[in-house]
Amino acid sequence: MSSWTDDELAQIGDAEELQIAGLQQDGTLHKPIIIWVVRHGDGLYVRSVKGTRAGWFRGTQERHEGRIWAGGVEKDVRFVAETDPAVNAAIDATYETKYRHEAQWVPPVLTPIARASTLKIVPR
Predict the structure, then answer these.
(1) What is 6-123's CATH topology?
(2) InterPro entries, from UniProt (predicted)?
(3) Sign of CA dihedral 70, 72, 74, 78
């Protein structure tokens, strides 16, 4: 399994937003959308406010692969469901800290519905 370089983790983790596109069955990418991204330890994570019913999230589940763009990094990735309650609690705290300047928009990304869509982004 590939891992992020320290520079990639810093660049993506510090980015305000990330573009994400899931890989379709035919090998082409879905249209990229912009979402928030957080870094927890050596991992990068995203969530959908609409949970697993969001179009972009469903697109990541076709092949569990895709591409991201953030902080000057473009990378082919895998999407891995993060279900560990302790990790999700830490991700909640990271969202609250990183996006405190957007405080009115943070609570929707902390709901059980959003938490159920937490994906770890892994380079491939």
Answers:
(1) Pnp Oxidase; Chain A (2.30.110)
(2) UCP028498
(3) negative
Where do the domains of the chain lie?
A: 6-123
CA distance 78 to 18: 15
**Torsions phi, psi of 73, nearest 5?**
-105, 135
Location of structure tokens 């979402």: 35
Cβ-Cβ contacts under 8 Å for 64 (sequence gap 6 or more): 78, 79, 80
Please state, as a whole number, how many other Cβ atoms lie within 10 Å of the Cβ of residue 35: 19
Instruction: Encode pLDDT of 73-111 as tens digits.
Output: 999 999 999 999 999 999 999 999 999 999 999 999 999
- Residue 3: partners with Cβ closer than 8 Å, 6 or more residues away: 42, 123
Intra-chain end-to-end CA distance of the chain, in Å = 7
CA distance 6 to 58: 29
